[in-house]
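explain this chain.
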Amino acid sequence: MLAGLSRRRRLWHLFTLILCVTSITVATVPSVGFAYQDDGADGEQPAPEQPAGGENAGGGGAAQDEPEEEQTFLSWMIEASGWWGALLLAVSFVMVAVIMMNLLQVRRDNLLPEAFVAAFEEKLGSKDYQGAYELARGDDSLIARVLAAGLGRLNRGYEEAVEGMQEVGEEESMAMEHRLSYLALIASISPMIGLMGTVWGMIASFRVIASSPTQPKPKELADGISTALFTTLEGLIVAIPAMIAYGLLRNRVSRLLLEVGRVSESLMSRFSTVPKKAEA
């Protein structure tokens, strides 16, 4: 019971960590102001001239221009990314969902539960082979399905039983690889989406240069350039965790499948002397 709680706690911590990965770069950057103001010679705003008599012209007074509101880094990033950023955000949610799905399925309790192995070995030790077969058929773990396939073909001989076990193992391995392939796909397409945003932003900047009758201001070019850079950054932020998770989960799957094969063959080795059933 305590071990199960510990595993769930570790999974919850890992889920929280993955959710933070896509936003940690933004969250750690302080807010930066981007309001442009004309400074005086000494870096201070010159005081507005007061008309004679201390009264504002026109009686109502001309209101001073209010300073532009400072734009935070996060709001600038969202505005510059546009719908490219929204697309990458959706891809990041899919990535987190795929990672959690694989983490919940690729567990020792689902593939190689110790309680089942102990109970199955006890049945074999007492030579209750029918009870062992029923126990394997009633369990949903991978090793139970492998052993049930082997026992089901045991009447055809030990070699046929081992072949049946290998077929179940290969099918499960293919299914796990199929689920993991989505992470590899996300790791591949995320930089491509970011690259498309980069090209889009650069085209927008060059369009400003081409259509402007005079030399464009840097602020007019900054919109397209910021789109290009932010989309590249966001594509990498999504792709890097996906690549890391794919590598770690693939190694975990390979290790558990190898252990399932080793344990199942060890349990079935006592039937190695069973002869092949003679054909009629």
Observations:
- The first helix runs from residue 2 to 27.
- The chain has one domain: 74-271.
- The chain is about 70% helix and 0% strand.
